[in-house]
Amino acid sequence: MRKTTKTPVLRRLAAAAVALGSCLALAGPVGSAGAAPADPVPTVFFGDSYTANFGIAPWNQEGDRTFCFQAKENYPAVAARSLADKGITLDVQSDVSCGGALVRHFWQEQELLPGSGLKVPPQQDALKADTQLVVGSMGGNTLGFTRILKQCSDTLRGPEHALLPGEPVDGDQPAAKCGEFFTSGAGKQWLDDQFELVGWDLEELLERIRYFAPDAKPVLVGYPRLVPADTSKCLTSAPGQTELPLADIPQDALSFLDQIQKRLDDTMRKAVADAGADFVDLYAHTGSNTACDGVNRGIGGLLENSQIEIGEGQYLPWYAHPNDKGRDIQAERVADKVEQILNR
């Protein structure tokens, strides 16, 4: 069953808003083709921990958004600065990216820490009638990627990793058998259902952008590659590290995790194509910067210390999020796509 809050009324309103925006565009003056906008472009960034760039310090600790772990120098900030150097100015109306966000948190409030009472408003609240560009990453948490990681790792199931959202899909199934679990029976059905949910929810998100910001160009940003083609690289610790990049996840499950990432990429691409939006492909450009690529890694290892200090000499793990190198790759690809869009 389709899990969505969409109503026929919203769909008609969205269609009307898109049609109105198209008519206004046709009626307005025609600018020169291929010229970047001279005026600042009203922009909203949204998304989950991959947009917020969890693990990179310092992070914004203002009000109730502290536990979004949004880095002050996340890829939206770096991309905006890179574009400014090229004469393209983004008027960033808001960056509402937040760690742990599901796609539905685009239109529903998000509780930051279970039981804490700390909440942030729906991310769509940041959209304005004059917003022209909406950029961000969502989908991985709705899929339940951290639950998949926990299904494949005994270590991540421990209480010390409670900050990593979710529980294993079936805690009675051994982590060593996770590949088999997800490719047959109840595990496969769960995964298929999750992918269907991601597709429906991304469709809803893109329609809501069209409704609340009719003139905006939506840009969905994919996820960087986690596992290399040669999974034997994951059997060696990165320089200066003692833990393996992907901890105790069995090697035979690593290629399966890569397949899940590819499938998520395809699901995001389809939602974007159906909505007439744009997609930033990170997976195809990060094959040499996976968590298992040593000094070239753009993803911090699952248990490798991030930059987030929570006590004297104590740090939160990266939990497989982009490090500074990975953040810079994200920013470069996003800036290139935005420049391309604005120069159409």
Automatic annotation (TrEMBL):
Residues 45-327 form the SGNH hydrolase-type esterase domain. GO terms for molecular function: hydrolase activity, acting on ester bonds. InterPro entries: SEST-like, SGNH_hydro, SGNH_hydro_sf. The keyword Calcium does not apply. Residues 1-27 form the signal peptide. Disulfide bonds join 68-98, 152-178, 234-292. It comes from the Bacteria. Keywords: Disulfide bond, Hydrolase, Signal. The active site is at 49 (nucleophile), 321. PROSITE patterns: PROKAR_LIPOPROTEIN (PS51257). GO terms for biological process: lipid metabolic process. The keyword Disulfide bond applies. This is SGNH/GDSL hydrolase family protein. It comes from Streptomyces chartreusis. The lineage of its organism: Bacteria, Bacillati, Actinomycetota, Actinomycetes, Kitasatosporales.
